Amino acid sequence: MIANPRLAGFFNRALSHEMAAVQQYLMQSRLAALWGMGDLSSHFRRDVDEELAHAERLMERMLYFGIPANATQLSPVRLGRTVAEILDINRDIELEAVRLYEEAAGYCERVRDYENRDIFAAILQEEIAHLEDIGRMKKSLSATEVL
Ligand SMILES: [Fe+2]
Ligand SMILES: [Fe+2]
Q1: Which of 7, 84, 131, 133 is deepest in the core (most CB within 10 A)?
Q2: Residues bordering ligand 1, an ion, CB closer than 5 Å
């Protein structure tokens, strides 16, 4: 099956986002470890696994449609000088993901491509959950001011 260029564009934008997120959270996981914050480091490492799983799901569909993976433009890693700064940066990244998957799912809905709509919508739900998780971390950070 051959994908139309719009669909191929959404897959490659999404893949670029996921690979950039992998790079971002992996680097932050190592940074948190350097700061001696083992729990936070593990938390970011689990985020890496989640974003990698998204990349895998996208790649499966790309293989099916014969779309070559082309995540060549990864945004640079943004580290942050404090945990609060890191969480703000990550919230922006997850917001970008939510907007991207909303747009992709909306496009598929309009062209009645329900199978791909469901893929994008499922990843969208996980990015929304990720965003909520960051919100909870920010709350507990300001409550304890320990991290
Ligand atoms: Fe993701
Ligand atoms: Fe995410």
Answers
A1: 7
A2: 18, 51, 54
What is the CATH number for 65? 1.20.1260.10
- Per the structure, the count of domains in the chain is 1
Residues in the chain: 147
Compute the distance from residue 33 Cα to the ligand 1 centre, in Å: 22
Q: Which ligand ends up closest to the CA of 58?
A: 1
Residue 114 and residue 108 in contact, taking contact as beta carbons nearer than 8 Å = yes
Kindly state the average pLDDT of the residues 110-125: 97
Which domain does 80 fall in, by range?
A: 5-144
CA of 136 to the centre of ligand 1 (A): 18
pLDDT, tens only, 106-116: 999 999 999 99
